[in-house]
Amino acid sequence: MKRWIALLIGLVSFLGIGACSHVREYADIARSKEVSEAYRVQLARWTRSQIVHSQFETRVHIHATYLGPEFNRAYLDEYARLYRLSEGEKRSRAESDAAKASEFTEFLFYAYIPEKPSNDFDRKGSIWSVFLIDSKGQKVLPTGIGRINPVTPVILNFFPYVHAQYGIAYRLKFPASAAALIADPSTKLVFTGVVGTVELAFGSR
After folding, report:
1. Is 173 part of any domain?
2. Are 4 and 42 found together in one domain?
3. Residue 7: pLDDT above 80?
4. What is the CA 161 to chain-centroid distance, rounded?
5. Residue 150: is the preceding peptide bond cis (ω within 30°)?
6. Do 181 and 100 fall within a single domain?
7. Are residues 99 and 72 in the same domain?
8. What's phi and psi for 194, nearest 5 deg?
């Protein structure tokens, strides 16, 4: 009987060691799949965020990344590295990105609003008004705002400020001509409504 108990304990110990080994292996894989420092630098360079408070409570918190030529190159380089794209595959994606850029100027933004029904940027009749505005007060309205659904692991890893359980991520599109405005530090990307106003400038860094 004692012999069987000893064998059972040994088996459990062996399985435990094996399980720990697999956990370490998966952790190593996860670390190897993390985005690089070079990509994180470009993400920080092209991302702006702002929190609007009222009586020490958060009313709205928005992060927005300008998906311009420099950021898109960094994104593609990192995606190609992680997914081991061939030169041909990478070139094909670059051509596709260039074609999209000729059609519109794009942002990815994430909004956290404690009052969840107010997080309705993509809804017709939204409580929010979104636009670009230059130093002369001229506005450029978006051509589309779309909710990102589902929020994939790719989105979560490449844009770590996105937390799907708390807020909502969107794609925001403007006419292609808007890209020229964004380089001007006086141009602001504005989200405004009864909840509050967020103004982000992308040409200041």
Report:
1. yes
2. no
3. no
4. 6
5. yes
6. yes
7. yes
8. -65, -20
Q: Where are the beta strands (DSSP E) in the chain?
A: 47-54, 57-66, 104-112, 129-133, 139-140, 144-147, 168-175, 188-193, 196-200
In a domain, 205, yes or no: no
CB atoms within 10 A of CB 187: 22
User: Domain for residue 105, yes or no?
Assistant: yes
Separation of first and last alpha carbons in the chain: 73
Query: Is-contact 145 131, C-beta < 8 A?
Result: no
Domain count across the chain: 2
Selection from 99, 50, 45 nearest residue 75 by Cα: 45
205 token code pair: 């860094």
- The kind and range of the H/E element at 13 are helix 2-32
On whether both 73 and 167 belong to a single domain, the answer is: yes
H/E stretch holding 189: strand 188-193
* pLDDT (tens digit per residue) in 35-84: 999 999 999 999 999 999 988 899 999 999 999 999 999 999 999 999 99
As a three-state string, the secondary structure of 110-161 is EEECCCHHHCCCCCCCCCCEEEEECCCCCEECCCEEEECCCCCHHHHHHCCC
Q: Which domain holds residue 12?
A: 1-32
Flag whether 113 is in a domain.
Answer: yes
Residue 143 and residue 182 share a domain:
yes
